[in-house]
Amino acid sequence: MKLLLLITLAALNILPAPKQSEIREGSYTFPKDKKEYSLCVCGDVNRQELADFQEYLKLNGYTQVKKKAGLAFYVGKNRFKGTLPYAATVDEGYRLDVTKGGISVNAAAMAGAFYAFQTIRQLDNGGTFQCCRIIDEPAMAHRGLMFDVVRHFRSVDFVCRQLDAMASMKMNRLHFHLTDDQAWRLQLDSHPEMIKTAFRTNIRHGKTGTYDNGYAAEPPAYVPGTVNFEDGCYGGYYSKENIRRILEYARIRHIEVIPEIEMPGHSTEVLNMHPELRCNCEQKTKRVVCPGKEETFIFFQEVLDEVMKLFPSKYIHVGGDEASKMNWEICPDCARRMQQEGLTSVEQLQSYLIGRMEKYINSKGKKMVGWDEIMQGGLCDNATVMSWRGTEYGYKAIEQGHDVIFSPTTYFYLDYYQGHPAIEPLAIGHHKPLSVTWSAPIYAGKHIIGVQGNLWCEYVTSDKHFEYMLYPRALAIAEIGWSPGEKRNDFGEFCTRAKSFADNLKACGYAVHDFTADSIMDEDYAPVKHLALGAKVDFRGEKYNEKPHFYTILTDGEVGNGDVSLTWARVKGHGEFTVDLAKAQDIHYAGVTCLHYRHSYFPAYVEVYVSSDGKDFRRVGQKISRAFGSPSVKSASTVDFDPSTYKPAYEKDGSQEWSTATYSFVCNEKGIRYIRFVLEPREGFGTMAVDELVIN
Ligand code: ACM
Ligand code: ZN
């Protein structure tokens, strides 16, 4: 029975997986290919939502007719009085029947009809619909994505395009990160000066170099809601009209947009415009406002007033993450505030600030949500916590009776690598392939109101890259938010549906990461595409034996395999490999793989140096094989690889264990022609086998 169900789901290819589905014999095709629908409202429905739905169906090529049509919607609570098997008390739930005679949808509210229609779109196989019955409703209320439009601005059109994809995944919350150190993206009447931070002189990305002033003036011909690249002026902002357009687009797709105004940290742009909100002391950080000053509260309350009028969302997000308290420790204004309020720590000072904001937000009939640091110094009464530093703080908040949205780095951070850094675009670090996102052990429960993927954009400059990071991992988050947890037990089955969904996204022009290639990372034989393919390699050191292929295999696009003597460059003792890219290039990755097998051992450490001229080399990093103890060198910069815990890649002859380890260096270097890998052996284990020097 269970097996049958899985086959059914795969056959219907619906994502997120519905609560119940049953495939039936036969199919339905609209007569004469005319997509007509009828809509019967049975009891109260929201009139705006009704009009939105009609508009949405029209946009999707469906025409409404008076008499019962091939697609018939029955919407309203009254529909479920009596004997129907599905008592849809849930607004987002629906029952969908495809029979040979037509398609019918029963839903208690317009949201349910909308989600039924998303399912119908997925069932549409060139105008033919497989007969089935689906009874469906979401597991969680908040199924969201966070877009960081600060680090790099995204146009209104681009945001709307993602709202379309979100709706088809049955996601219903967009957390809009509008302010941060690098820029303020929202035009306000109360603080028009803030959008002076929206333009910069060039596209600078990465973690550094983006906090200073360096602002460019708004170009005279700038159209709000678009990205400006012209004349050394990079950036953009949203006018209120832009926001209204996004809100309407979202509303029609049953997506609530939750604005985030960051405080008290991540506020460099606020302090650049309002230096009077700094602490009254030496500036140990430039990123945090002073909670000792009343002006700070006035500023944020004025901003929130306008934001709360503009955004109809129930929630307002106040950030609260990563606020350094260093200035507060030494600021006389902060000290006075602490004394007046009886606060005994700077953590309590953060709690005081957030607590006042919460009261303000509550006084306007809204709820406050913040990153999990808002728990520091005590959590205020009604706050909802967004658990991002893993899941631990989320569960703590639940214990204290608070609602939680889970968006943990451990599973849901979409700025992390989704494949091997050697072949993926520069990302912020860590490895979170689709399989990891999907495996998040987060299930619906008391106070768990939802899940969310966060796409921070320090490294995500282009729109295409943005989509590439979202898809397909957002699909896994949508599935966790919507589908019953007990059904989440077959990654292969999920991948079948994800592949079908991803193919549709691609057909609509979205950039999608090819997750079917993720497994290549575990394969030793996988060919590798990179900048140093065929590059000349210079070696300093002692070769284990003279082999004619010693140099060529290092950059031939194949990681060495079981044929050790033919496919690995073997060296004795300290070795230096210098790759010549033939011309200066920008690089973001350097990696070398080593083999542990029989008489070849992992190095004690690997270092990478770069140079533009082949003379002056600069070190970009060092990786130490921690298992072998401290190296003899000082100032080790990175210790993050431990071969002793590395799983052998494969076994040969059922007896010999092989393992390989890749020493990866993520960097952001411009104009580099020469890259040098320095391998230092472990004392007494001097032979090393090296292959593929990968540069990207
Ligand atoms: C965060 O990632 N700093 C919320
Ligand atoms: Zn202060």
Topology (SSEs and partners):
Elements: H1 2-12, E1 20-29, E2 36-41, H2 47-59, E3 63-64, E4 71-75, E5 94-99, E6 102-107, H3 110-123, E7 128-136, E8 142-148, H4 156-168, E9 173-177, E10 179-180, E11 183-184, E12 199-200, E13 234-235, H5 240-252, E14 256-263, H6 268-273, H7 294-310, E15 315-319, H8 326-330, H9 332-341, H10 346-363, E16 367-371, E17 384-387, H11 392-399, E18 404-406, H12 409-412, H13 434-438, E19 448-455, H14 463-470, H15 473-482, H16 491-507, E20 536-543, H17 564-567, E21 569-596, E22 605-611, E23 618-625, E24 638-641, E25 650-652, E26 656-680, E27 687-695
Parallel strand pairs: 2-3, 2-4, 4-6, 8-9, 8-19, 9-14, 14-15, 15-16, 16-17, 17-18, 18-19, 23-24
Antiparallel strand pairs: 1-7, 5-6, 5-7, 10-11, 12-13, 20-21, 21-26, 21-27, 22-23, 22-26, 25-26
Helix pairs in contact: 4-5, 7-10
General description of the model:
- This protein is α/β, with parallel strands linked by helices and 696 residues long.
- Helices cover 25% and strands 27% of the residues.
- The protein has 17 helices and 27 strands.
- The chain has an 8-stranded parallel barrel, surrounded by 6 helices. Strands 20, 21, 22, 23, 24, 25, 26 and 27 form an 8-stranded mixed beta sheet that branches.
- β17, α11 and β18 form a beta-alpha-beta unit.
- α7 packs parallel to α10.
- It is globular.
- The relative contact order is 0.08.
- The site of acetamide has 4 residues, from loops.
